[in-house]
Amino acid sequence: xxxxxxxxxxxxxxxxxxxxxxxxxxxxxxxxxxxxxxxxxxxxxxxxxxxxxxxxxxxxxxxxxxxxxxxxxxxxxxxxxxxxxxxxxxxxxxxxxxxxxxxxxx
Length: 106
Description:
Protein name: DUF1840 domain-containing protein
Number of strands: 4
Number of helices: 3
Structural class: alpha+beta
Shape: globular
Distance between the termini: 7 Å
Order of helices and strands: EEHEHHE
Pfam families: DUF1840 (PF08895)
Strand order of the largest sheet: 2-1-4-3
Radius of gyration: 16 Å
Organism: Burkholderia cenocepacia
Largest sheet: 4 strands, antiparallel
Helix content: 40-55%
InterPro entries: DUF1840
């Protein structure tokens, strides 16, 4: 199932339900058929998502260094949270700049 995120401040983004559920949980929201992140909630949501991305990057770098000798170049880059969350984070930032809500739906 696809989830569509919309704000008048940026182009819509569409993502798979599992990723949407995960990202929304990171910003303190629960995936429902429809929902909203109010403009007043955006600073906290952005901060929480940025922190989660930073923590994921630290874990990924730590893992790469610890397993590099065993798996040298045997696995392509996995594309961590930063890569998957960037469009959503960008949407949140643009909505915050323009003081707009972010809504989602199926």
